[in-house]
Amino acid sequence: MSRALWRCGCVIGPAVLLAVLLWRLGTGPFINGVRTIDGGALAEAAGIAVLTTLCCAWRWKTVARGLGVDLPLPVAVAAYYRSLFLNVTLPGGVVGDVHRGISHGRDVRDLGRALRAVVWERSAGQVVQAVLTVAILVALPSPVRSSVPLVAFAVAVTVGAAVLVVRVRSDGRSEWSRFRRAVARDINDGLLARRAWLGISLASALIVAGHTITFLLAARTAGTTAPLSQLLPIAMLAMLAMVLPSVAGWGPREGVTAWAFGAAGLGVQQGVATAVVYGVMVLVASLPGAFVLVVAWFRGTRMPVRSPRPLREGAAHA
């Protein structure tokens, strides 16, 4: 029951947020955002997405290799494109990641490790994104600059408390002890093995940089002329909101961007238009994932059906 309520909330919440924006602002900012998009901007966003997707796939491959479920980089790139397309077209924003983990698990016949590889890969990226976001919000003026030190302190305390809880000694045969050992083993093997942590951190930083540049490109395309020092913190806040559940990517992104633009004096309507442009750019950039889905479906329908092996004489009477 609780899971069903959570799933409904993940869809209803973003939908209500979009409805409120439409009610308060009308359809004008959404239509204006779409009208400002041109082919050149879409091509630039798609080119940036190629680099970020390659980094995402390499990060996933690195974590998976550490957990013992490695996969070829071309396969990882294709699967990640498919995952991105599903994330931006289906409610929740994580359907593609779940599908990616399950498909990989079936290929390697280890569903548990494959799903954990996806979880740790995405978690590592979000940690790097959070660190970079806090650093930029502290360094540059933003609508939340005064609150950032308090938030950073609360996060540090929470992380410290989590580390202490994990280190608490318990009965080695208890479920908690087994879970703690499994988590520690995954982190050591998947994220901290040899020099993997350095590559994972670098790839995650490049991914954040690519998404940030795409957002800045969307802002310029929508007609925003604010300086980079003013737009960069807003971009980081918007990307942080994209981690939240959404309706095919829509909802939290538009709400946070509208609020941040309004608080910075750039106009709420301009914020919505920028978010719309970014959403269209991301959708177009993820279209290779649709091609991967079509190819996989076509191959599945063309796979020959294996005829059952004939029974040995007398086997039917065994």
Describe the structure.
- The chain has 318 residues and is mainly alpha-helical.
- It starts with a helix and ends in a 16-residue tail after the last helix.
- The chain is globular, with a radius of gyration of 23 Å.
- The C terminus is likely disordered.
- The chain has one domain.
Summarize the structure.
With 318 residues, the protein is mainly alpha-helical.
Number of strands: 0
**Oligomer state of the chains in this structure:** single chain
Backbone structural class: mainly alpha
Q: How many alpha or pi helices?
A: 13
The pLDDT mean sits at 85
Query: How would you describe the shape?
Result: globular
- What fraction of the residues are assigned to beta strands by DSSP? under 5%
User: What's the number of structural domains?
Assistant: 1
Low-confidence stretches: 302-318
User: How far apart, in Å, are the first and last alpha carbons?
Assistant: 48 Å
What is the rounded Rg? 23 Å
The ordered string of helix (H) and strand (E) elements is HHHHHHHHHHHHH
Largest sheet: none
Helix content: over 70%
